[in-house]
Amino acid sequence: VSVDVAAYMKERAAAVDAALDRFLPAESVRPERLHTAMRYSVFAGGKRLRPVLVIAGAEAVGGRMDDVMPTACAMEMIHTYSLVHDDLPCMDDDDLRRGRATVHKAFDEPTALLVGDGLQSLAFRHLLAAGDPRAAPLASLLAHNAWRMVQGQALDMDAQGRALTESEVLELMAGKTGALITAAVVGGAIAASGSPSGLEPVGQRLGLAFQIADDLLDLTGDAATLGKRVGKDQAAGKATLPALVGVDEARRRADTACDEALAALAPLGAPAEALRALARFVVTRKR
Length: 287
Ligand code: GRG
Hints:
The chain is mainly α. The chain is built from 14 helices and 2 strands.
């Protein structure tokens, strides 16, 4: 069984978009500006990688997309909150995200702050309101990893203007990016079967591979394709793996992490084929 990863992602992302559209407050509902900005940030053309990983994680253990949709949407809401806050002038100060003006540019800073806060609260409300018997462990998984993401971001902020060791960079990456990606893969399995089903190492390796690929794209990628500015890490003197070990070695590490994820998926057989295709996508993507 081979999976056409572009078609797989497009189909699942469309289902996720429809579910998010049903769940998020309408723009016409008061306070209109907040709800409009929230929808602006969520429906900006993101890849939907985390919710698609939730679905693929569920399918890998025999689950169905419809049963894990609240978990998938919650992951994307937490992810979008992190991007909106990360773009604020007090953090990375970005004016472009997902190919359009960042939320604080298109609206204003207080609105961007509230969009992030609101998306985080709504993510948990959505998970807990869905009536899923596994809502409590899922909310706990999400809370734990959203918290790890905040810790990773704090390490990133602390690192500014300071040389980091390789293990410090890996720690930062595991928190900032790896935590939510791990939560997505494992969350899919828990939502579908009640058990992580051995998917933690898969999520961790994918998180590492994803962040290295992200750092490489910042160095070598195309701004128009990515929908955000490139070269920012280098200009800001950010501690990234490519900056520490070089582009070629970083690419090797990403490929190794992908191979390790594939090896960890081997026991799951054919149902994990989409997750394998996504693992390969993570290291070959151009956006
Ligand atoms: C502000 C609490 C807080 C956390 C911020 C996720 C994060 C932590 C910062 C975002 C900046 C960044 C470049 C993070 C690492 C990689 C990453 C998460 C990239 C964006 O994810 P994609 O490529 O984005 O999946 P789309 O737009 O496709 O959803």
